[in-house]
């Protein structure tokens, strides 16, 4: 029997309209600077995790355990619908548009128009999160996917990390099983699994740090390659989920698993969108991730480090649901990786800090990946350098709860968040920009300038376009979006040889790209 299509997860929608859940008073201040374990996953969708979607096909008990012990951010956003720009924003606290790092760092696809210019590296002039924490007395280690520079001079050791295990220019693993063909990761025994290996390396670091009599705090930034393509996982887990889905191992996807995504511009055919979660290999990859998260949580407990360690769980963009394999569904969220809809930018975001944040918190305060930088620096009692122009805002008060937390949630609802993706993604998404403020989100298409307005509280799936009904709100939000384009020097599409000119926003001279 074929698995049923997922109903709209009522628990997710209920959480999206609640303001926040706080305890009456904040926890006691910890004795010293917290450790930080940042778990970044590649291409994991919010609807892939049980804590955000109780109807998910995948099994994530350990990630759910992390969520139960910390705070879930129902509207935690990536700064971009693809990987490198979001990673840049986490490392710098800045919108990637400021340096034209607006696509994954080899993405220069042309379709009707030429994409905007792409800067394919995180400049060494940036004062990264790792540099700031290291200068503040932290030990710093990076493991996994980097994808923030084309050559070794831009890799983790040049950007504030003392240790680099696996980080290099590549955006995907050449192999999920040893030999890895990775210039910064030694091969293990034949068929050793990459996700488990990175976790082994992380646990070894934790053991070493705990045994170090110097007792300095640490940042471990573990950036998993999974669940990015190529889709590979241990055979026994694939068989487990094939049986759960009621399909044979290696069987092709069924046509009923897909729907279509319409486009403003005419196309020869619609974009296929996966609407059912039943991909056995992808499910197996999610389980390998979840097992690894559980091992790290268990080790923090065993080493008596959990209480004053901030554990962050986040994904760099939404789940892959259109093209490049279509392995997951993001419903009820629309779109996925490479799209400006919620399915492409809304992430499974969890932050746990037992010494400060009460367990089981949930907030719908809109936050974005650039916010990690000031939040973690504030938690470490370090100041952002005054000469650095950052875009992120600390959400530490939201974690603390109490009156300050309630005020921070209210402030977040009055704040503008921005996206700028002037590229044709491999997943079929359109070049565009977006602005969200409170419950409303406006999406602007760069091919023809059309705009769409959505009420995310009433319509999280972005199916009911309110632009014609609310022209004044559209005008106000679009004006703020265009002003932001000028502030950050946004670049836009350009004409191909002998082709028509694309639409461009009417920016004042010198304001935009």
* Quaternary assembly: single chain
User: Portion of residues in helices?
Assistant: 25-40%
Major sheet: 9 strands, mixed
- The counted number of beta strands is 15
CATH topology: Alkaline Phosphatase, subunit A
The CATH architecture designation is 3-Layer(aba) Sandwich
Mean pLDDT: 91
Question: Given the C-alpha coordinates, what overall shape results?
Answer: globular
Q: What do we call the CATH homologous superfamily?
A: Alkaline Phosphatase, subunit A
Q: Low-confidence parts lasting 5 or more residues at pLDDT below 50?
A: 1-26
Q: Helix segment count?
A: 12
Radius of gyration, in Å, reads 22 Å
Number of domains: 1
Write down the secondary-structure element order: HEHEHHEEHEHEEHEHEEEHHHEEEEH
CATH class: Alpha Beta
First-to-last CA distance: 54 Å
Counting helices, strands and paired strands, the structural category is: alpha/beta
Beta fraction: 15-25%
Task: Kindly summarize this structure in a few lines.
This protein is of the alpha/beta class and 513 residues long.
């Amino acid at each position: 029997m074929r698995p049923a299509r997922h109903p709209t997860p009522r628990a997710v929608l209920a959480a999206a309209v609640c303001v926040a859940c706080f305890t009456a008073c904040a926890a006691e201040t910890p004795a010293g600077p917290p450790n930080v374990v940042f778990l970044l996953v590649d291409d994991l969708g919010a609807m892939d995790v049980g804590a955000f979607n109780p109807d998910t096909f995948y099994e994530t008990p350990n990630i759910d355990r992390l969520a139960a012990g910390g705070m879930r951010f129902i509207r935690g956003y990536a700064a971009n619908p693809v990987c490198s720009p979001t990673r840049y924003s986490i490392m710098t606290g800045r919108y990637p548009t400021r340096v034209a790092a607006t696509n994954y760092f080899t993405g220069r696809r042309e379709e009707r128009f030429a994409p905007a210019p792409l800067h394919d590296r995180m400049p060494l002039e940036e004062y990264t999160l790792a540099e700031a924490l290291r200068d503040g007395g932290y030990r710093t280690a990076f493991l996994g996917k980097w994808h923030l520079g084309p050559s070794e001079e831009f890799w983790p050791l040049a950007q504030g990390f003392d240790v680099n295990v696996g980080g290099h220019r590549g955006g995907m693993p050449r192999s999920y099983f040893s030999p890895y063909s990775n210039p910064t990761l030694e091969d293990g025994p034949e068929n050793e699994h990459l996700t488990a290996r990175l976790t082994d390396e992380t646990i070894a670091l934790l053991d070493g740090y705990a045994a170090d009599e110097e007792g300095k705090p640490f940042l471990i930034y573990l950036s998993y390659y999974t669940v990015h393509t190529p889709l590979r996982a241990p055979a026994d887990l694939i068989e487990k989920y094939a049986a759960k889905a009621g399909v044979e191992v290696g069987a092709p996807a069924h046509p009923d698993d897909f729907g279509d995504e319409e486009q403003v511009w005419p196309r020869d055919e619609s974009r296929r969108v996966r609407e059912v979660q039943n991909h056995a290999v992808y499910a197996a990859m999610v389980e390998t991730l979840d097992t690894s998260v559980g091992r790290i949580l268990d080790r923090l407990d065993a080493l008596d480090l959990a209480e004053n360690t901030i554990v962050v769980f986040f994904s760099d963009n939404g789940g892959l649901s259109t093209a490049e394999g279509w392995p997951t569904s993001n419903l009820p969220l629309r779109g996925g990786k490479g799209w400006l809809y919620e399915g492409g930018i809304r992430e499974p975001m969890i932050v746990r800090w037992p010494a400060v944040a009460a367990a089981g918190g949930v907030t719908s305060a809109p936050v974005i990946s650039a916010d990690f930088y000031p939040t973690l620096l504030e938690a470490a009692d370090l100041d952002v350098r005054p000469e650095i122009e950052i875009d992120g805002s600390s959400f530490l008060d939201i974690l603390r709860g109490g009156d300050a937390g309630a005020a921070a949630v209210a402030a977040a609802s009055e704040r503008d968040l921005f996206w700028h993706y002037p590229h044709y993604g491999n997943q079929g998404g359109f070049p565009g920009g977006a602005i969200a403020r409170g419950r409303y989100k406006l999406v602007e298409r760069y091919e023809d300038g059309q705009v769409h307005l959505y009420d995310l509280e009433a319509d999280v799936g972005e199916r009911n376009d309110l632009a014609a009904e609310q022209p004044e709100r559209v005008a106000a939000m679009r004006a703020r979006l265009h002003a932001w384009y000028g502030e950050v020097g946004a670049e836009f599409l350009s004409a191909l040889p002998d082709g028509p000119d694309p639409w461009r926003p009417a920016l004042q001279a010198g304001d935009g790209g």
